[in-house]
Design a protein that fits this description.
The protein is mainly beta. Helix content is 11%, strand content 56%. Strands 1-2-3-4-5-6-7-8-9-10-11 form an 11-stranded antiparallel sheet. A hairpin with a 2-residue loop joins strand 1 and strand 2. The protein is globular, with a radius of gyration of 19 Å.
């Protein structure tokens, strides 16, 4: 980590943990009228269950995650630094237990809430969730939102407006097997 001419940066931060590795670059630079932030992260096939069990040895949380983030942003203060976000956030999640709740992150909570509404069938499990977002002018739009459960395939749309603090997510499930009468209805958040 360095602090040079008012710019704080972590470049690079490489973590090798049991179950995978994480590479992160981060910089924050306050200006006279705003803050600039840069964040890049690459996580490939990280087994996050190992980390969950370090927090709580009895945790049943587990699975694999891959993340690719490249964001550059400016905002009038740290609270609103994402107002000028541009770049991308891509992730893939292959959970073994999506609802275990050890990681209290808003993105995990959004995914968990949507998946529980989209596929309410007892015993159905989430196989994977894939999402790719492009950000510009402080608004993120999906390039791909897809999920697969034991019984359903789900495609969706998502807009995240950091300036308005608004989230609009729509998920449309489709049964994997033909059904005479389907209860798979679109869900919004």
């Amino acid at each position: 980590a360095t602090l040079e001419k008012g710019r704080f940066s972590v470049d690079p931060l490489a973590l090798d943990v049991p179950g995978g590795s994480v590479d992160v670059n981060f910089a924050l630079e306050p200006g006279e009228r705003d803050f600039a932030m840069e964040a890049r992260a690459k996580v490939e096939q990280l087994d996050y269950g190992i980390l969950a069990r370090r927090i709580d040895p009895k945790s049943e949380t587990g699975g694999v995650i891959s993340v690719d983030v490249d964001l550059h942003t400016r905002g009038p203060d740290l609270k609103r630094v994402m107002h000028g976000a541009r770049g991308h956030i891509d992730f893939g999640l292959w959970p073994r237990d999506l609802n275990a709740g050890i990681f209290e992150l808003w993105a995990v909570n959004v995914i968990s809430a949507l998946m529980s509404e989209v596929d309410k069938e007892e015993g159905s499990k989430v196989n994977c969730v894939i999402a790719r977002f492009q950000a510009g002018q402080g608004v993120m739009h999906e390039r791909v939102v897809f999920a697969d459960t034991t019984k359903m395939r789900v495609e969706g749309t998502a807009d995240i407006d950091f300036r308005q603090r608004a989230l609009d997510v729509r998920a449309k499930p489709k049964a994997k097997k033909p059904e005479f009468f389907s209860l798979a209805v679109p869900v919004g958040l």
